[in-house]
Amino acid sequence: MLKPRNRVTAKTKASDVLVPDKLYFRIGEVSRLCHLPAYVLRFWETEFPQLKPVKSSTGQRMYRRKDVENVLHIKQLLYEQGFTIAGARQHLRAEVKADKSQAPLPFPRALCRQYQTYSPGAE
Question: How many CB atoms sit inside 10 A of residue 13's CB?
Answer without folding.
Answer: 13
